[in-house]
C-alpha cells in the first residue's frame, strides 16, 4: 500500500489502524453485540436441547495468531510455542455462531 500510494509505511500503519478501529466501532454492535440475559438463557437452553449439556452457555477456545515481533516490544508477544503472536479468544453458541470475540492479548500472556 505504501508503494502504491507513495506514502510512508508508518503512515499506512496508522491509517490501517484507524480504519480498523472505526470499522469495529460501527460494525461490532450490528454483527457481534454483547449478549443479553435473554441471549444467555437461549444459549443454555440450546446446549441442553441439542447437546444434552446442562448449564452451558458457550464453547470457548483460543488461537495464537503468528506475527512479526513489533519494534521495542521485547518478549511481550513471544509465546510458549516459540514464536511471536497475539491471542484470539472466542466463544460460540450451540449452533457454532460466535457470541464473543477478543483479539489482541499479548502472545506471552
TrEMBL record:
Keyword Hydrolase on entry: no
A GO molecular function held by the record: metal ion binding
Highest taxon listed in the record's lineage: Eukaryota
Protein source organism: Trachymyrmex cornetzi
InterPro entries: HARBI1_dom
Statement: the UniProt record of this protein carries the keyword Metal-binding: yes
Keywords: Metal-binding
Cofactor field: a divalent metal cation
Domain DDE Tnp4 intervals: 60-107
Protein name, UniProt field: DDE Tnp4 domain-containing protein
Amino acid at each position: 500500500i505504501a508503494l502504491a500510494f507513495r506514502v510512508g509505511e508508518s503512515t499506512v500503519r496508522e491509517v490501517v489502524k484507524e480504519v480498523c478501529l472505526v470499522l469495529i466501532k460501527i460494525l461490532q454492535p450490528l454483527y457481534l453485540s454483547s449478549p443479553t440475559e435473554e441471549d444467555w438463557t437461549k444459549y443454555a437452553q440450546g446446549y441442553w436441547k441439542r447437546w444434552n449439556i446442562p448449564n452451558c452457555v458457550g464453547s470457548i477456545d483460543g488461537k495464537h495468531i503468528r506475527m512479526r515481533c513489533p519494534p521495542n516490544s521485547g518478549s511481550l508477544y513471544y509465546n510458549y510455542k516459540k514464536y511471536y503472536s497475539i491471542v484470539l479468544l472466542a466463544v460460540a453458541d450451540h449452533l457454532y455462531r460466535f457470541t464473543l470475540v477478543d483479539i489482541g492479548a499479548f502472545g506471552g500472556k
